[in-house]
Design goal:
Elements (H helix, E strand, L loop, with lengths): L2 E6 L9 E5 L5 E5 L9 E6 L12 E13 L2 E6 L6 E9 L2 E7 L1 H4 L20 E6 L13 E6 L6 E5 L2 E9 L1 H9 L2 H9 L4 E6 L14 H14 L5 E3 L3 H28 L19 H10 L12 H13 L1
Parallel strand pairs: 9-10, 12-13, 13-14
Antiparallel strand pairs: 1-2, 1-5, 2-3, 3-4, 4-8, 5-6, 6-7, 7-8, 9-11, 11-12
């Protein structure tokens, strides 16, 4: 049976007095300050497996048999084989601009959320200014006023609003008014749109009205619309369809969803690097990000002090520098 092992840190100068062995892959080792997250989430510093002492020098504090220990997204879910203090999570995240790992339990989860910044209204998944790509065909687009958002207009392969991590489009939201929703259900265009959204790691459809609005339709049977919506959710459970009551609420929901998706995708990248053999959902099969416009690259170059002409084509090295900067950010 797999075990979670806590040993004393043989380094007396370390402020983290324990070593934690997690049986994932060939084994993960962390330095930490406690034996279980009882009153607060414990910070865990990733360590090399070579730091784990040999059997002769190993000072074991606790061995905990496990029912399961498995990766779930940017976290490792741990279930102990005992009646109390059974469940915990080791979460890979970012805080204060750097990668961090926390060990938390259900009791401490509400007390320690490293992704959440309070009391600011900024979304939990957003660090700094969030860039949202708006499809160039979107009419009367959301402005995300009052949020730390920068919008850029490009032709998206799917959805109306999206976020990019590296060179990959990792999430998108399709916006619908109630008349758009009804029309796209009748002519089946929504079925195809949701199928395309399902190719992304994270996607959703947001409706600027209430669900009850579909039952007020007069030129089509409401039951037919309700059945079509239900069928879509059954066929594509990974693409939620959210009724946000009003356009402002739909805009707010879109911002929060995309910010959370951006944070999740970056956490996935951290997890893939930290855990040997781990794979990320943000893989090579994810659609590449839409190419930036010449105007956008020209503005970026000027902001960085690069010399570019007012009109015409940009030099290849300018495009190369832009792509390198975007891939690194």
């Amino acid at each position: 049976m797999a075990e979670l092992v806590i040993a004393r840190n043989p380094n007396p100068g370390s402020s983290l007095g324990y070593l934690l062995w997690v049986p994932v892959g060939e084994g993960l080792v962390f330095r930490t300050s406690g034996t279980w997250p009882r009153t607060k989430a414990l910070y865990c510093h990733p360590a090399e497996r070579s730091e784990w002492p040999d059997d002769a020098d190993l000072d074991v504090v606790e061995r905990t048999p496990l029912l399961s220990c498995a990766r779930n997204g940017a976290a490792i879910d741990v279930v102990a084989d005992r009646r109390v203090e059974r469940r915990s999570q080791i979460v890979f995240t970012r805080a204060r601009g750097r990668e961090m790992v926390f060990w938390q339990s259900p009791r401490t989860r509400k007390q320690a959320r490293p992704q959440v910044r309070t009391p600011t209204a900024r979304a939990a998944g957003a660090e700094g200014e969030l860039e949202i790509v708006v499809d160039s065909h979107e009419r009367y687009a959301y402005r995300f006023a009052g949020q730390q958002v920068r919008t850029v207009s490009r032709a998206l392969p799917v959805g109306d609003y999206g976020v990019v991590v590296g060179e990959r489009l990792v999430a998108a939201v399709e916006r619908k008014s109630l008349p758009d929703l009804v029309g796209s259900l009748i002519d089946s265009t929504l079925r195809h749109a949701v199928g395309e959204l399902a190719t992304l790691p994270r996607a959703a459809v947001v409706v600027e009205d209430r669900y009850s609005g579909i039952f007020a339709q007069e030129r089509v049977r409401p039951a037919k619309l309700a059945d079509s919506l239900a069928e879509l959710q059954v066929r594509h459970p990974g693409v939620p369809l959210v009724f946000a009551e009003t356009r402002p609420l739909a805009e707010e929901w879109t911002y929060r969803f995309l910010a959370a998706a951006s944070g999740w995708a970056q956490d996935e990248a951290v997890m893939a690097e930290r855990v040997p053999g781990a794979t990320s959902e943000v893989g090579q099969d994810v659609p590449t990000a839409p190419e930036a416009t010449t105007a956008e690259v020209r503005a970026w170059a000027r902001a960085g002090g690069l010399d570019v002409p007012d009109r015409g084509r940009l030099r290849p090295e300018i495009w190369a520098a832009f792509r390198e900067a975007r891939a690194g950010g």
